[in-house]
Amino acid sequence: MVKFYESTCLAEISNTDYEGEIKNVGDVVKIRQTPDITIRSYTKNSTLTHQRPEAAVVDFPIEYGKYFDFILDYIDIHQSDIPLQNKWADDAAMQMKIAIEDGSDSDGVFANIYADADSSNKGSSAGAKSGDINLGVSGTPLAVTKADILDQIVDCGTVLSEQNIPEEQRWMVVPVWFCGMILKSDLKDASLAGDGTSILRNGRIGIIDRFTIYESNLLYSTTDGDYTVWHALAGQRYALSFASQMSKVEHLDKVESTFGSVVRGLNVYGYKVLKGTALIDLYIRKGT
Fold it and tell me: Where in the chain are the domains?
């Protein structure tokens, strides 16, 4: 039977430039930052002031590991008309991606990164320049309705632009109901969506105000008063660095105490918000 999985999007929203440099839990990748070059005013016959830039180094630790380990009984192998080992290994790979993102797992990426958003990119007074954009705060989460959802997406774009974040490769990861709100909003009109076919008709959310929209059931959610609330995320690809490697994969044909073979694998990974100014924590609940 066909098996369905939660959608994952971590590879699409993060920078994965450092994956080839890791092998085991405990590895540390050294990331060199570009220093700020000082610009000074020049006057005739003045003495120049020299700058000696220092390239800061950020440690990117590979702190986490997850594994699978399953036994394939010889009777199952003999009686099955499909290659069970390959099918089960494929399932393990999908479950691994889900577990790494899962906001309900203390090691999951979505359970932790929202806290690293810059202080001007969250709360009820967001905006590095304006300081008056409401992105929701504990006790008063932002209520999302079909009437104002477009305003809230545009506000997120404003918050990033006030931090001088590039317009390319911006993204949003939102709960499934949030995408439903978009489909009920004014964007169901094709002319407003800038497309010949409305998103209500083709079912694709796509890009809104420079954000590529991803829906996810893996975002961190909790209870705030009478409401279930979510830490939805928005940002630019270089806000988050992520690295993952299957460091060990083993197939053991003969295993003590059982007639079967063992397949097991260890995935090591790490993630780090390198640019909190390029990450938004959108603290929301479903409005009416």
Answer: 28-288
* pLDDT tens digits, 21-79: 777 888 888 888 888 899 999 999 999 999 998 888 888 889 999 999 988 876 676 66
Strand 221-224 and strand 227-236: pairing? antiparallel
Q: Where are the beta strands (DSSP E) in the chain?
A: 28-32, 57-61, 64-73, 142-144, 170-174, 207-208, 211-215, 221-224, 227-236, 240-252, 260-273, 279-286
What average pLDDT does the structure give for the chain? 87
Give the model's pLDDT for residue 108.
Answer: 94
Return the SS3 of 182.
helix
Give residue 77's pLDDT.
67
The structure tokens 């660095």 sit at: 241
**Locate tokens 């053991």: which residue?**
252
Strands 142-144, 279-286: parallel, antiparallel or unpaired by DSSP?
parallel
pTM higher than 0.90 for the full model?
no
**Residues above pLDDT 90, as percent of the chain:** 57
**Helix, strand, coil share of the chain (percent; to 5):** 30, 30, 40
Token pair of 217, please? 């059931």
CB within 8 Å of 173: residues ≥ 6 apart: 9, 13, 110, 214, 215, 216, 219, 232, 233, 234
Looking at the DSSP assignment, which residues form a beta bridge with residue 273?
Answer: 240
CA distances from 232 to 4, 111, 145, 172, 213 (A): 23, 11, 15, 8, 11
Q: Of 76, 209, 80, nearest to 149 (Cα)? A: 209
**What is the arithmetic mean of pLDDT over 130-144?**
97
